[in-house]
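Exercise 4. Each item below gives a protein and its sequence. For each, produce the structure-token representation.

Item: Iodothyronine deiodinase (Emiliania huxleyi).
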Amino acid sequence: MRPYLDAGSLSLFLVYIREAHPEGGWAIPAADGICYRQPKTLASRLAVAAKFAEHQAEWCAGVPMLVDDPTTNALDIAYEAPPERLVVLDEQLNVVFFSGQGPFQYSVPKLAAFVKAQLGE
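Answer:
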């Protein structure tokens, strides 16, 4: 996706909804040893999301991030996203690609093929 982003033919943003594997929940050992409790306030969720972006900088550097407010979970409800999902919106913000829930029901190669087809490649 990076070549399309760099060329300006694609815009991307991350949506941080909630911890997929929180401490005290369905936690899994992380390679970097990082595990957080499920944030209950927007301030704490923003802090955890910032740490996620910092640790994933190699692929999401410069990509804006939306963070779901844990008091409403509006994005979680709208996209039925936990623990993760791939979604493409067109210029009118209509959903034009919607994967199954990750990590087992989505495919980054299918997303890449969809993007290439939409860009006429």
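Check: The domain at 2-118 is CATH 3.40.30.10 (Glutaredoxin).
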